[in-house]
Amino acid sequence: MADTPGDTGAGPAREPSPATPTSPPSLVTRLAQAWDILKDVGTDVQGIVEGTQSVTGRPKQVYLAGLIGTCLVFLVAMLGVGKPLDTPLTVALICFIVIALPLLVFGFATLSFEVRRGLGSHQTAMVAGLGCATSCLGELLASLAVVVGVFAVVWHINPLVALLSIGASLLTPLAYALVARPFVVRQQADQERARPGNPATPDPAP
Question: Which of 2, 42, 61, 192 has the lowest CB atom count within 10 Å?
Answer without folding.
Answer: 2
